[in-house]
Design a protein that fits this description.
The structure is a single chain. The chain is mainly β and 522 residues long. The chain folds into two domains: 2-24 and 445-517, no CATH class; 32-439, YVTN repeat-like/Quinoprotein amine dehydrogenase (Methylamine Dehydrogenase, Chain H, 7 Propeller), CATH 2.130.10.10. The protein is 0% helix and 49% strand. The chain has a five-stranded mixed β-sheet, with no helix packed on it. The radius of gyration is 29 Å and the shape is elongated. The relative contact order is 0.13.
């Protein structure tokens, strides 16, 4: 209760602070906000920080502890390490490893990184593996779990490769992707020219690998490997979280293949395959949306598998039986610029290359290389069905087409989400960039309002006398109100009825809000 005078009349003004928590304007869970970008030193672009080792970034992976981000770059022949701030998701360049055939150029020289494409971090965090397409090699690195620093621990090369310093094995001609089983006992490489999946046993203590065998496409049999349909030109490989299944995206055959996995030995056995309706591959079930599948994304609950396809500009959804690992075709979503052909339509999927599912299973992210975009889909936790939410496109595009804009997305290729679900990272092969995004998470329930609000009258002084009009220029009427949760509004009562000011300032939130009133004498 405060008293002051207007036109020589004493009036009582009651200040009532109604502290009502109003929900903040949260963005939808899963939405992305650009958090900056880093670009190779040979590229120049406003808004991006120049660093070494990002020429033609392909693969990106986040360590399981969320402390580091690793990028495999095909033209720089590098594996680059970035430190990640767990609070903000911001990344800082730490260093790079470069194939020994090139000048180090500020990086450390190692064998087995010629044409680095795919990168994976082991679940235990002690190992990093890189699939190098030009060198026909799989490189092995030990990881310091405290600093994230990498130490070269060896490499494997295809039996026909000339790379020195690596162990020779079958089935590694042009490997493009690498995957690790959740139990950490197996590593798998997908090799495009050998049309093969190569199996390695992994020492869970040291991360060292031992070659166990390979499976090749029926059209490209070779001594030392068994054969299966649906493996022509594989570009992606992944293992289900329960370790029972392995799936392959075979770009050249327009097909995806399914394998069961022995959880004790890591050995895989062919279960079947699906092919695009226009594919000529025999022995596979025909479905829509699989022309040039590139990547694979499995949901954490083991019930959904997604395949982005470069030529069809699609993301195809399959329903997985958690008990058997068997796949059933669900549906597909195609870029707006392409003919639907039985698929739903969405913006940003032109040249879809890679996809990832958030750790909470509520979002799917797709990198559209030809649209220079990353696309956000909301995922139905019960069915795995996808609904287009939003997209972000490279800032240099002539038209946003309904997408937000951010620097560094030209040729968006690889995409990965942080384990804590607060960040998404995109590697772009044309911009030679790594783009960081902040991810919205589900809103937490509001804290209890246990503290009474505080109200203070700043001007006019309590008991003072004023006349005429109170304006911004002469100080007006300033009231400050605070609360531990938030202030919804402040009401001023003049002799009982509420005083309606003719002007007011916008009140800051949360915590303390201020209001400037302009009142006239009566």
């Amino acid at each position: 209760m405060f008293a002051w005078r207007i036109a020589r009349r004493t009036c009582v003004v009651s200040v009532v602070a109604l502290v009502v928590l109003t929900p903040a304007a949260f963005a939808d869970p899963g939405d992305l906000t650009s958090g900056g970008c880093l670009r190779d030193l040979e590229k120049t672009s406003p808004g991006c920080v120049g660093v070494q080792g990002l020429d033609r970034g392909y693969g990106v992976a986040v360590s399981t502890d969320g402390k580091q981000v690793y990028v495999a770059s095909g033209d720089d022949d590098t594996l680059t390490t970035f430190a990640r701030d767990p609070e903000t998701g911001a990344v800082t360049w730490v260093g790079c490893l470069r194939d020994a055939a090139l000048a180090a150029g500020g990086c450390t020289s190692v064998a087995g990184l010629d044409g680095a494409r795919g990168v994976a971090v082991s679940p235990d965090g002690i190992s990093v593996y890189v699939a190098s397409g030009e060198g026909d090699a799989l490189a092995v690195f030990s990881r310091n779990t405290t600093s994230g620093a990498l130490t070269w621990a060896g490499c494997f090369r295809d039996s026909e490769s000339l790379v020195s310093g690596c162990t020779s094995v079958q089935g590694l001609d042009a490997p493009r992707d690498v995957a690790i089983s959740e139990d950490g006992t197996s590593v798998y490489g997908a090799s495009a020219n050998d049309d093969a999946i190569t199996t390695f046993g992994r020492d869970a203590t040291t991360g060292a690998l031992t070659w166990h065998g390979c499976v090749r496409d029926v059209s490209n049999s070779e001594a030392g490997c068994v054969t299966a349909a649906g493996l022509d030109g594989p570009r992606g490989v992944d293992v289900s979280s329960d370790g029972k299944s392995l799936y392959v995206a075979a770009r050249d055959g327009d097909a995806v293949a399914a394998f069961h996995r022995d959880t004790t030995t890591g050995a895989i056995g062919w279960d079947g395959c699906f092919r695009d309706v226009e594919s000529t591959v025999t022995g596979c079930t025909k479905v829509q949306g699989l022309d040039n599948p590139h990547g694979i994304a499995l949901s954490p609950d083991g019930r959904s598998v997604y395949f982005p396809s470069e030529i069809d500009d699609t993301i195809a959804r399959f329903i997985r039986d958690p008990a058997s690992g068997a796949l059933t075709y669900g549906d597909c979503i195609r870029d707006l610029g392409a003919s639907p052909n039985g698929c739903a339509s969405a913006e940003g999927l032109n040249g879809a290359r890679q996809a990832t599912v958030s750790a909470d299973g509520s979002s799917v992210y797709v990198a559209g290389a030809d649209d220079d975009a990353v696309v956000v889909f909301d995922r139905d936790s019960a069915t795995g069905a996808l609904t287009w939410d939003s997209c972000t496109r490279d800032a240099d595009r002539s038209s946003a087409n309904g997408c937000a804009l951010a620097q560094g997305l030209d040729g968006a290729r690889g995409v990965a989400a942080s384990p804590d679900d607060t960040s998404v990272y995109v590697a772009s092969e044309v911009d030679d960039a790594l783009v960081a995004f902040r991810r919205e998470t589900a809103a937490s329930p509001p804290p209890p309002d246990t503290t009474a609000p505080t109200v203070s009258w700043t001007t006019p002084a309590a008991g003072g006398t004023v006349s005429g009009t109170l304006t911004r220029e002469n100080g007006g009427c300033t009231i400050a109100a605070g609360d531990n949760v938030g202030v919804s509004r402040v009401e001023v009562l003049l002799d009982g009825p509420r005083c309606r000011p003719t002007r007011r300032t916008h009140m800051a939130a949360p915590g303390t809000r201020r209001r400037l009133l302009t009142a006239r004498t009566r």
